[in-house]
Sequence to fold (749 residues):
Amino acid sequence: MAFVAVVYTILFYVAAATFVAGLVYKVVRYTRTPAPLPIPTMPAPLTKTGAAVRVAREVVIFESLFRSDKWLWLFAVMFHLGLVLVIVRHLRYFVSSHLGLVWTLIALAQPFGKYAAFALMAGLAALLARRFMLVRIRYITGPSDILLLLLLLAIGASGASMTFVSHTDIVGVKAFFLGLMMFSWQPLPADGPLLVHLFLVAMLLIVFPFSKLLHVAGVFFSPTRNQPDTAREKRHIAAWALPLDEQRSK
Amino acid sequence: MVEFQIPVLNDVPAEFDTKFTPGAMAHLKPFLAKADHNVPLGFPGELVDDWQKKAIDRMGDLVKRYRSLAVYLDSCVKCGSCADKCHYFLGTGDPKNMPVARQDLFRSVYRRYFTPTGRVFGSLVGARDLTKEVLDEWYSYFHQCSQCRRCSVFCPYGIDTAEISMAARDVMDHIGVGMKYCNEIIAKVHKIGNNLGLPKPALADTLEGLEEDVQDGTGHPVRFPLDVKGADILLVTPSADFFAEPHVDGLIGYAKVFHQAGVSWTMSSYASEAGNFGMFIGSYEQMYKVSNRIRKAALDLGVKRIVFGECGHAWRVAYSFLNTLAGPWDFLDPAYPVPQHIIEFTYDLIKRGGIKVDAEANQGMVLTVHDSCNVARASRMGTMPGGQFILPREVIKACVPKFVDMHPDTIGDKTFCCGGGGGLLTDDLMELRIKGAMPRMEALAQVIRDEGVTHMAAMCAICKSQFTKVLPYYGMKMEMIVSVHGLVSNAIQLGTNKI
Ligand code: HEM
Ligand code: HEM
Ligand code: SF4
Ligand code: SF4
Fold:
């Protein structure tokens, strides 16, 4: 196997492990940390199902963002929806069978998927432009915010260059990634844009659990959104607060 | 006395034209608590020697205790959706009053000491050492947040800056850097039972005076009972209701409603305060202690129900936290929610015809209402979500000839804080209070101009005090502010229609 393939094999194992371990660690931390007081932003749904629907609305249609800032919402949707379509289209590199639900999904997304790259990049470009053009946003922008947008833009651009300019051997790419998953390592097409694309993707996976990309987990764990309004019906006492009650009754 | 500029009110609320002015409010900070204020709460009297280490330890502790903190410190994407939602930013233009920037004062330190990237990359990822300068900044800007949660409404992840400023204040208290106003008040509650430090004899005296006034004014023997064992209802109300204008009209209103409903009720001298400043300083323990005075009073007096008077943050603690902090309430009558808001109580009676109100009594008044931030975004009234907006309006509409709402972006869950919440209702922060009131003042000025509004009803002791103080700076009369139950007090028909 060529040297590049070995490097990328190792790189992707490291990246995937960091991504999964980091995210699992955070999710476990969030789950274990108590929410000692009910703090849903009111008015809040009265039931758990209602609260789950509220979170789902935040995830799917960015409801609060829509109430706040229509332009930002538009850019955010362009980017994230583009990302969803691109990722669905990418599943073909990881799914061996050509049957089943996943493949149907991939087949459905194929035609738009290709152009979703433009939505994704236009969204990212607009988000980046805001960071320079709007005084308030410039103030709260740090180097890492810009770098992350540039990273995503570079991933998009390198990917699109393969889709629209010079094709790569996607059968080879698929073989490489299925090989990674089956622990039977395969060569990787040594193609400039592909290597760039994949290197940047590995970087994205590695920074994911250490960066603001944790908003992906945060949106599900945010007590202001996922708690139902049951304060008068139910005590929400945390384990660390229990000793106070014990002292009281004595 | 005032040497800063009063903001100019624009025509269209919701499109505030805020001049971006870095450092505009850096000079402002509340008076520091002295040892006498801190020690009774179990905090160090003054800045401790190894304050930096202690602060970091406490921060780590809090991140483990509160899921809200753990999630919020990680999740902000710096999208800026919250940036222009804070009344203090809109009123002052100081970028550190943008909610995301305020959070970052805390987050930057968290990143530095608790995340691998912060330790390694430092300022690249916005991490900062906790230096004396940073601590000073915390002290200044975490006391320029009224914990009103407006930012949380508009954040795509519901990040609530209030949670962060509470945590920051708690960390500061633990190293001896407390705020005088809040800590002094909490110490008074522990010692005497209310924020004003009003002992039982003085309270009894005041209530007797009120009984006489109402008797003289109406000819009806409306009682203001104190420490009556075996009464059905314990009323817990903010102590400002005993004295301040227009609060006291509200208290008279509650008494008339109880009188006319024919229920037995009492107040408690031990728990003579609905407010709970423990929340403002982010201290679970302080909030717990203050709340449990109410439990003790309810047990000692043997009441069956608990009803709260008009106060925003008090109602947040009561509605959202009291069950957790001071429950279970298995010794009270299960037929009623615990606790109940006086507006829920009055609304029910009006609907059932249990009391009669006559809007003619408030002839000539055109009302609007200020949704208190804590009532709007942190609690509920009635049985359905959003009842906190409906019930007060229904009660007000029943009592006045005409009611109009302010601009839709400034009411309901988008309401603006009065500018004095969160433990900032102190003269040392007057500049902030005046500037922070600007968004509400703008919306109010608009309905005065366009709809002929004469009065604004409030349902919070802090809002009432803040507005009466601040309105004159904006060329409006302080008498415009009325208590919701002040309106009920005028409109209620005493001595008629027992059911
Ligand atoms: C549960 C799934 C997700 C939800 C609900 C979500 C939601 C949001 C929202 C509401 C924003 C704020 C608006 C904006 O600035 O665009 C945002 C920002 C952002 N999201 Fe996501 N997102 C999700 C997944 C992802 C993923 C998988 C990535 C990247 C791989 C990502 C990358 C970003 C970035 C980089 C920003 C900041 C954009 C900027 O700098 O302005 N998001 N996300
Ligand atoms: C291990 C993960 C990934 C692999 C193996 C991979 C591989 C590829 C390949 C082979 C192409 C060219 C497709 C063609 O020629 O038709 C491509 C395109 C693209 N990639 Fe990736 N990619 C990965 C992850 C990502 C991620 C995380 C993003 C976005 C953040 C991304 C964004 C794109 C875009 C926008 C295109 C162009 C549009 C398209 O063909 O869908 N890729 N990628
Ligand atoms: S809680 Fe209110 S005062 Fe504090 S930052 Fe948010 S909007 Fe501003
Ligand atoms: S709206 Fe939420 S995510 Fe966006 S900058 Fe404000 S706190 Fe951060």
Observations:
- DSSP finds 21 helices and eight strands in chain B.
- The first strand of chain B starts at residue 233 and ends at 236.
- Residues 200-218 of chain B form the longest helix (19 residues).
- The CA atoms of residues 276 and 290 of chain B lie 6 Å apart.
